[in-house]
Design a protein that fits this description.
Layout (H helix, E strand, L loop, with lengths): L3 E5 L2 H12 L5 E2 L5 H9 L1 H13 L4 E6 L7 H12 L3 E6 L36 E2 L7 H23 L1
Parallel strand pairs: 1-2, 1-3, 3-4, 4-5
Length: 164
């Protein structure tokens, strides 16, 4: 049975790369929001955005942060990580900059997003607790894709077990 996960990512920069990960069908993930729906949600302000994120995370066992060049320290990425962690869910990161975008380009690795979120009781960075996998292959995008596909489910399982 596939785990139900919440994918967290920077939409504008990485939607194409994220769609590749979603299409692996290794996990049951939250439904992507359309551009029009997201615009409607944003019109409701921060409260509406938080409500939407909370609803998407509800019933999920793990938050999978798909990390591109500009994912780290974004307001809503931080909130999604904090929310999943505070609810006791597994949290794991996977670098996706090695996957090609729609123009066929890869990107550079961004900062670790878990360096910008702090554990609520120890006040240490979540990067001390959460694994950020870097499957980027020296050989290219197809090898990076294969590495993610072959390991995604086990990375999620490990993150969930770490929180149990």
């Amino acid at each position: 049975m596939a785990r139900r996960v919440f994918f967290s990512f920077h939409y504008l920069a990485d939607a194409w790369r994220v769609s590749q990960v979603r299409n692996m069908h290794a996990l049951e993930d939250n439904c992507p929001v359309s551009d029009n729906d997201w615009e409607a949600i944003k019109k409701g302000g921060d409260v509406a955005i938080k409500r939407w994120i909370n609803g998407q995370i509800f019933g999920r066992t793990c938050a999978v942060v798909l990390v591109g060049a500009s994912t780290a320290n974004r307001k809503w990425i931080n909130y999604e990580i904090e929310r999943a962690w505070s609810e006791g869910k597994g949290v794991v990161g996977i670098r996706i900059h090695g996957l090609k975008d729609r123009q066929g380009n890869t990107s550079s690795a961004g900062a670790n997003p878990f360096d910008y979120v702090y554990h609520p009781t120890t006040n240490r960075r979540l990067s001390d607790y959460v694994k950020l996998h870097d499957p980027t292959s020296f050989w290219g995008s197809s090898e990076t894709y294969s590495t993610i596909k072959n390991n995604l489910a086990s990375w999620v399982e490990t993150a969930i077990k770490q929180r149990e």
